[in-house]
User: Fold (S)-2-hydroxy-acid oxidase from Laodelphax striatellus.
Amino acid sequence: MDLCCIDDFEEHAKKVLPKNALDYYRSGACSQLTLRLNIEAFQRLRILPRVMRDVSRRSTGTTVLGHPVSFPVGVSPTAMQRMAHAQGELANARAAGAAGTIYVLSTLATSSLEEVATAAPDTIRWFQLYIYKDRKLTAELVKRAEKTGWKALVLTVDAPVFGVRYADARNKFKLPSHLRLANFEGLLADKITTAKEMSGLNEYVNDLFDDTINWKDVSWLKSITKLPLVLKGVLTPEDAVIAADLGIEAIVVSNHGARQLDTCPASIEALPAIAKAVAGRMEIYLDGGIRQGTDILKALALGASMVFVGRPALWGLAHSGEQGVRRVLDILRNEFDTALALTGCASVGDIKHEMVVHESLFHK
Ligand code: FNR
Assistant:
């Protein structure tokens, strides 16, 4: 069967991935209310199309932190991608490069910073960072990212501890024993392959991640690197304003794919108030629930300049590695281009806030 949309790729992944991996990739926290909201909140928004505007010469391109990208969709950091395909992060990063966009590598990757840099030298690569209790180790990761050509650090700010994910607890989730957390050596690389009571991932995080992290640590990070900093996981205008005041280059409005705090808002619900508060002082991106071209257009209308996808790229990997992710990104690009044309937009700059309204407007 030809897979022609992101949901087709997810259906395919459900058939081919082992349960341990599929559940880990798919789940959200607790009752998964926010997981559903991330999708449903997009469905509650309506696009008001303008017509008769000559859209024959269209461009989907834009610029992110000074990097031209061919369309405003990048790949979010997701841990342990070799559970989806033997080439894991290497394939995903190459596919993002082939699509002319950004790849973000997770700290908890099954391929190292150095391996991905070698496999995808021309991809715009950003490195997602978790702050470990061991600050020397954390600073070492930053140095390695600088040395191997990573263009920005994406500090995840919504994970002082990990969310409660029932499926991982039920499965006693572990990384299969032939895989490693490749950015580390010894115990830090292997610890996650052994789980005692609950999810191995939660055990790992609770032991090693620094839950004292606070805004001073952002200043610490700024003091040890010249790379631009992106804060991922902001959901309130208050926190966005603190980030802007600290001189952060960009934020990702994100709820971590609904895997952290259940019942927090969908990212797209949180976006408009944040965009208003930030008022152009830094770039704003969004991830969470992007599954079709119209979702991208809605996020851009409501204040994001770029969106990222996590699970859709994993479904592409599970299908056919690099080719599969390329196909997923192509589908999103084509659907976005079509959405531009059908709303009377020739470029991303033509997308206007007033083109997107909440469905309640029609039910008064
Ligand atoms: C994630 N996410 C994530 N975020 C992060 O900062 N570091 C990480 O290691 C991971 N790992 C991870 C694993 C898996 C399996 C998923 C699904 C997600 C969150 C990720 O970057 C992103 O915020 C969401 O995936 C976006 O939502 P969608 O596109 O999956 O709906």
